[in-house]
Structure formats: C-alpha cells, structure tokens
Amino acid sequence: MAWEFWIDRGGTFTDIVARRPDGALVTHKLLSENPERYPDAAVAGIRDLLALGPADPIPEGAIRAVKMGTTVATNALLERKGERVLLLITEGFRDLLRIGYQTRPRLFDLDIRRPDLLYETVAEVPERLDADGAAIRPLDESALRAALTAAYAQGIRAVAIAFLHAWLNPVHEARAAAIAAELGFTQISASHQVSRLIKLVGRGDTTVVDAYLSPILRRYVDQVAGALDLGRGCERLMFMQSNGGLTEATRFQGKDAILSGPAGGIVGMVRTASAAGHDLLIGFDMGGTSTDVSHYAGTFERSFETEVAGVRMRAPMMDIHTVAAGGGSILSFRDGRYQVGPESAGANPGPASYRRGGPLTVTDCNVCLGKLAPAHFPAVFGPAGNEPLDAAIVRDKFHALSAEISAADGSAPRSPEDVAEGFLHIAVANMANAIKKISIARGHDVTRYTLQCFGGAGGQHACLVADALGMSRVFLHPFAGVLSAYGMGLAEIRAIRERQHEAPLADPAAADRVAALAAEASAEVAAQGVSPADIRTEAQAWLRYDGSHQPLEVPFGPAPTMLAAFEAAHLARFGFTSPERAVLFDMLAVEAIGKAGDLPEERAPAVPSASPVDQLRLYSCGAWHEAPVWDRATLGAGATVDGPAIIRESTGTTVVEPGWQASVDTRGNLILVRTQVAARPAPAGTRADPARLEVMGNLFMSIADQMGLTLANTSWSVNIKERLDFSCAIFDANGDLVANAPHVPVHLGSMSDSVRTVIRQTADTLRPGSAYMMNSPYDGGTHLPDVTVITPVFVDGSPRFWLGSRGHHADIGGRTPGSSPPDSTHISQEGILIDVFPLVEDGTLREAEARALLTSGPYPCRNVTQNLADLKAQVAANETGRQELLKAVATYGLDVVEAYMGHVQSNAAECVREVIGRLTDGAFTYLMDIGTQIKVAIRVDAKARQATVDFTGTSPQHSGNYNAPHAIAKAVVLYVFRTLVGKDIPLNEGCLKPLTIIVPEGTMLNPRYPAAVIAGNTEVSQAACNALYGALGVLAAGQGTMNNFVWGNDRFQNYETIAGGTGAGPGFNGCDAVQSHMTNTRMTDPEVLERRFPVRLETFAVRAGSGGPGEWRGGHGVIRTLRFLEPVTVTTLSSHRIIPPFGADGGSPGAVGENWVIWPDGRRERLEGNDARDLPADASFEMRTPGGGGWGRA
Prior knowledge:
alpha+beta
C-alpha cells in the first residue's frame, strides 16, 4: 500500500495528516509562509514525511493520493493578485458589478472605498433577453468580436461573460464563449455555467471570480503536480471544494475554491462526531487568524449567496460564519475599552511569544495565564526554529499594557493575568456571538448541541465558549488540532447542480428537473472514476411563502411531505407559519456523492492508568489554580480528568476549566462535560471596568443584530427584506438608546423619542405581554411608512428595558401608491397616522383592530395583509431581543446590565468629546431647490468639550412636504458626529450627551401638526447633513437627495432610492454611484426586478463627468432607465435639480440631477424634482442623479 496525504493549507499553518502504507496516521505542521526554507508548505511537508533529501525524487508509486484544501485562491482574492480579466456584459450594464446593490461597505466612512474590482476592463455587448428568457435583441457578433480582439491585443487571456437572464436561456452566452475560444482566450467563464441561479450581480461577480482565480489555481495545481511527479510518484491529486466535496485537480475551479480549507473542517467535524453518536453539532474551528463557526443538524448547510472579500458569490458553499478572533488577533486598549482584533499578527511576526517582535495577541493571553506552557508547546521559534515560546516577553508586555490602562482610566494597576483574562473574555464573547448568529438567531436551541471543537487554538477556549453559550458538552477528536486536514481524507467526491425553479409547490415539472439535475451531477462524479453503484444522490428544494423572499431548504419529495417539512422549518426558524399563504418553489438542487473511504480505525490507546506529566499553575476565574498536565496519548478509554487541568498533544492544547471534566471514549475522543453548575461571573460591580465594558457593549450590539436578522428573515415587504430599510434597537428604562443595528442612518437616535412617547402615554396601563406601534412624525417618527413597534421588557414586575423595531412599509395609504405623494400639504394625504396603538395585549396580536386602523381614513393602506405580515415580523424581532436581554440578566444580574447600559453611553460620549476638542466654530446656509434654506451654526466650547448645534434661521415649515420631524434633526447630528469620530464606537444616546441641539419649533426641521413630511425623511435629512458638513468645513456636499422614485398601480407598487455621488474631502475623491449619508438601502437585482414587475431595466450605469472637479474629484452619479410594460403612475421626490451640490475649499460643485420621461413616441419631457406622471405601457423613465462636490482647486 502507498502513502496518502490529507492537507489543509491555512492562513497561518499548513496541517498534514498522512496515512502510512501500514495504515497508521501521522501528523505534521508547518508555517504556511516560510520562503527562506521552502517554496510551498504542502510539498515540503510531504517530502519531510517521506524523509526525502532536497534533491531526492519521489519514489515511483510512493503516494496513492493527495487530498488538499488550499488558501491559494482565497489569498489571491484578498490580495487582488489574480488573472487579468475582460468582462463582457449586456449593453447598459457596464458598471453593474461596480455599483452592485449601491450600498456603501462601512456606514460611517466619509472616504468610501469599495473593494477593488477584479476585472481589468469591461465591454458592453448589444444583446437582450426578456424576463422569460426570450431574445428581444439578437447578439451583435461583430461588436462582440471587436471587444474580444481589442482585449486580446492588450494581452488579456481570461474572459468573464455575464448576460442578463442567461440563467434562463444561455444561447447568447454560449455563442460568445465559442467566439472567445475561437479567438484564443485560454480562460472562458460564462455565467450560465458558473451558476444557473437568478441575480445578475451575484452571478456576474461569481463568473468574474472564476475567470480571475482559475488560471492561478491551474498554475498552482500544475506546480504541485510537477513537484509530486503526478502519474508516477503520485497516483491521484484531488482538491476540496467550497461545497464540501473533493474533485480531481483538473476540475478545480476558482469559483469553488474560496472555502476550500474550512470546508474540510466541516466534513471532518461531521464524520467524526457522527461516528461517536453526536448528531447535533456546533462547529468551532479556531485558527491563528480567525474562527469559523458552523451548524449541523443532520445535513450539510450550504449558502448559495454569500460575500467573501467584498465579492458577492452565487455558488454553493458551506455555510460558515467567520469572525476575526483567532489566536493571532491583536490586543489593544483604545477609547477606554479593551479591544480584540480585527487585526491579526498572522504568521509573521505572529504573537509576541513567537520571538519575532510581534504584538500581544489572544495566544499570548493563554501564555500569560499558564494555559499554554512553553515546556509543553513545540519549540519551533527563534532564528533556528528550535526555541520555545517566550513567556517572559509576554509578561513584560502585559505589565506595560496594564500601566497604560491605569494611566488612561486612573485605576489601580492590574496584574498581567487580570489584564490577560479580561482580553480573553472579550475574544470568547466575540466567538460566542458569532455562534449565536448561525444558531440561536435561526431558532436552534444550542443547549441541546455538542460543541465540536477543532483548529489549533480551539481546545484552549472550548470550555469558555461553551459556558458563554450555556452548552454543557464539548467534543474533541484525537486529530482536533488538524481536523480540517483529517476531513480531507474523509470527504467524498461530490458534484452539485442547482437551478432556479419559480413555480407552485404542486408543479409536476419539478420532478423532471430534479431527475435531469441528478443525471448531470452523477455523470460528473462517475467521470472521476467512481462506479455508478457507489454514487447516491440527494435532492433538495428551497421553498418560500408567496410574497416572501426567504427560502428554506427541505428534502425534495411529494408535495405534502415538503409542505410539512417547510412549515416545521419555518416555525422553528421564525416562530410562526402562514397557512393562508401559498408555498412556492424557489430553487432546486441535487448533489451526487461518491462513496467515501471508511473512517480510519479510531480506538483509544490501550494504556495502563496514566499519571500527569507535569504540574503547573493556571489562572482562571480570577484566581491561580494548581493544574496537572496530562499527555493525551497516555489517556485510555474511560480515563477521566477533572478541571482545572491541561491536556497536551502534538497538534494542540486542551484546557479543562474548573467545573468541567474530560473523559475518553472508546474511539479516543475527548468528551468535556460540565459537572458543576456554572457559577454566575464574579460580581462585576456597577463601576465601569474596561474589559467588561467591551464585553457588554458587544453583547448589546449582538442582541440588536439578532433582532435585525429576525426582522429581515420574517418580513414580507421588499423594503425591509431586500432593501434593508429598517433598524432595531435596545433602550434603557428611560428610553435612552443603548445599542442600534442600523442599516439606514436616518433612523439613528430618532427611535428614542418614540420610546419615550410610549413610556409617557402607557405609564398607568403598561403590563407584560404588550407591544405598541406608532409612526407619528410629531412623536419621534420619521415619515408615515416608517412604522415602529415598541416592546417593554419586564424584570421583577417592572419595565426595565425597551426594544424597538422600525421598518419601512411598502405602503401605509395616502394619495399615491407607496405613500409618497409629491404634492402633499397635509399629513393625512400621506397615509394612516398612528399614535401609540396597542398592537399586542397579553401576548395576543390585536389583528382585527390593527386591520381596522389600517383601512380607516380617506386614504387607507392598499395591502393590509402585507402590512400585518411586516408587523408580525417586527413583533418577532422584539421578542428575540426580549429573550436575549433576559438571558443577559440571568447571567450578569439586573444591576450589572443596567449599569453597563449607562457605561456604554458614557464611553460613547467621551469619544465624541475627543472630536469636539478638535473642532472650531462654523456656520453655513444651505439653499434648496424649493426656495427654502437650512441654516446651521456650530459653537464649540473646547474647554468643556461640548458643542452647540443651532439651526436657528432655518426656513419656516414648508407648505408642501419638505418638513423633517425633530427626530430627524437629531439623527443627522448623531450621524455627522459619529462619522467625525472615524473609528468604531458604540452608537447610542451617549453620542448626543456632549451636544446641545437647538431646532426652533415651527421650522422645516421641527414642524407642527398637520405638516406633511414625506420629503423630510429623505430630502431634508440629506440637506441638513450636507449643511452640517458645510459648517464644519470637512467635506464637500454629497448628492444631497435620496432620489425617491415610486412607481406602480393598484396591482403593484415599488419604491427605489437611487444612488449618486458623494462629496470629496481633504485627501480623497468622492465615491461614484453609492448611497450617501442618511440612507444605505439596497437596490433590487435587475433580474429579480424584471421577474417581479412588468418593467425592463435598460440602463444602470455611472454618470461620467457628473462629479465636481477639484484637487479631489466629487463622486459621479448614476443613470437609471426603466421601460414600463404596463401603465403606471411614477412619482419622484428628489432634490438638487436646480441648485448643484456645493464644492468645498475651492472645489467645483457636482452636476444637478435630471428626471426625464420618454414617451412611447420618443418625445422627451423633463420633470421637476417633485413630480408625478401617469405613463402608458412602453413609456420610459430616466433618472440622472447628482454628482458630489469637489474639494480644493483643481
């Protein structure tokens, strides 16, 4: 028998598990990057284990197979070092992948930087299919050949082809690929071959990734194959794909390589734990750079839509959530808080203890605490690679850090171990919060699960992470430290075929499509040498409710069986079902699986009763403990080890914390079980502790994030689910904002006033099991479509916290569909005005009463069923927050939770005070298209580190709808000052404490009832934001509008806010075609838009030349053109159609926006900023959005 090598080439280490000819397994670990010693870690490790000298060839037939997961593709993606690529895309969409969904990556960055594009050049191809896949414009082959020829002449040999609706009909793409091959292109990736799923943005990105990375992979595969003498020295070379299946090296594609290494860990986790009888698993794979967490409950969970390194992927990948908390995560004390990561020390220089001058990291915490002992850790450090971990430098650095913390907060110096344990608690909390996102937030009870722990650093933190989640069982395989590599050897050859299938659940064609997909997938596996008898297939259906866009996966089968499985999954995930709604297919997928090799024989070592090999001191729970050190190789079946203890092995260290016990099962697995009830953390007191401050701040944000996930998953309307036009927040007993998970900055801070209104009006009637809804712009609301659901959280019989979920409903009534009449003069014309309304009483939704409210008045809601579905989702989101807050109280105590709600606000206030100390007085008058002005003055008291923001002089409230409620003025101020901080800080009421905001009543920034406000939320908020930046003198104007575009009829309605250019600043250009300032809503994918509505998107492109010139150019706007296939009413609410966005410091203004109707006879009519038209079928609407102002003289 020959050798087999199972390899995981990770970011820090390369792990190898080798099966020798006699069947015995050995392991080997190398640094992934060590250019002084070897060019490739995988090949070097194989040669080490074969005991070959530098010049020795690999003996003939020595290696039966190499099965590898590699980060080569991931690294090339992260570092943007792939192949030169030409993108071919449907005419009108040259900038689509650049614009994406038009959101900015980081909400509070003024210098907005999108990830670098992967393609070098793009060419538009004249061709077009309709939403049913029928050709309505033939492929222009001469234009195509010209584009290909020009790129070829530039030396480009890789092409990505992404045509609109090619997932339905690949005829044009296939012809384009054939022509590219004829002209000599060596890498041709066509979107219909890469993914047969809807969404051109994601499928296009995936196609570009495939073209960008596949040549790199091919070169790496050829390099490895050559080094292994494939065909002579090595019989077979296979690679792990992101979907968890092996494939022959020659079939390994860029699109399937992104999660190559982590996928092996999932396979290893499932195969090893299942063999030992554990079938509900949370995967916890902690490495040097990051931690991957995953969920398993009987089937591999995959995502068909994810984002990696800023690239949207539309291909099957293991559903893995990554958090930047690995052994190499850097520790720092910033802004009064302990912080862990996201920066990593990597492999070079690595942690401080690695003897390369590196910073303190999570690994160093464990060295300082005695949990990683130099005497029991591989001595591979220093210039010669033979020195142990350096514990002395670690203690010295923690001493220095302790002194830095004491100097900053005036506290008594802490011991190095106290500081180290504080940082370790933060790392553990970050990892636990990541696990909550893929478990608790999806309706899984993690207390029933086993924590399957692996990765080089996993065993050091397993008990602590389990405790943070309330889990009581941890599983560590004998190869836990190299389980991703071990999983490579256990994996099957797999092929997946997926197709969009939008049809009713009873559709008989579904079975035929599944059969065709099964045949395709099976043929791919069979072509890799697997006997048809050894191939099985598994078919899955993704189902969703009609009107919903959140499909759930169930096994494909008879319709009643699928329906039952879907309803069970929906109930578990979201807490409700909707029997009145039809269930539809969304997608079908079939996986063909070649029979895998048997699990290597796993037996606990037959050894006599063991004794500890050493005795050390270990610091845990605030105290030093005597802890024996055990060698895992000496622990036989039935052996038990009580914590505190350390169990060492060649590939990792396991820390058995106090209150835990480790035992060895018959297969040699280490099972850790909590044997004593976990004690509540030591009384933290109510005084702010910088370590606990970070833990609690992250906890509050995690709860708000979980609320947001629930809301996005369970809502009905596109605005909430896809455009993410919502915010969820936690408030203290006074209604002050504690944590906010905002997607839309205009909601920032404004919900506090709504919560205080509920507190005030329900003081005598409030009881548990209640929830309230409201949208009044005069009591903390923004505009009527933004409906807020507010829920009290009772503890010991009184409301101690409040929760709020605000979502933009598609329609709340009003004179026009979408509730955005351009000429409204009274609030009643904009829809249903809701004061504090009891939506839930005693735990029961008052559905009939809510329906009656929403259908009342002169302009009732048009789709009450959808409104009620979204309200249910908001109630569910608040319930998620309530349960999590009660868990926090149970863990830390009510006094501590309440105290830290105050401390996080004080911390945020201090961060804003630091900014105020750098500001000077300023004033600005901002003129608007409608003839009004916003006037703002900023007066700074540098000594007190306070500032006054005074809007006195702003125009009186507008007779139309350009009125922004007072809550919006607060949101603008909060947003602007948060952007000035320039770093991540808690976003809460504390940010406003050093600020005095003066907004005279009766002005357009603080209107009285019954002022119309629909444009205030969108247009006036953007104008106020630009005005404030003008007064501060730090940024030129952004586009200053949300370019609201509402279109529809009685049958359908859609609402878009359209991106534009952002303002330039000192040292940076504005960003093109992106949402700015007070909004960050997403744009619906063109293919989804056209399938959902009778409309054809003809152009979505950057509006070149619209950014204001200057030393630093303003960002360009966009051009968006839609042709309507049915009669519609179009409504616009948009600004800067007359007055251009200002430049700053000598820079020129950006171009004004333009709104055009193109009538069926070709006549063009320019509309005003606020306007409406009734359009017949075949009319078009074109919007050209403003550019941002330039900065500095050109």
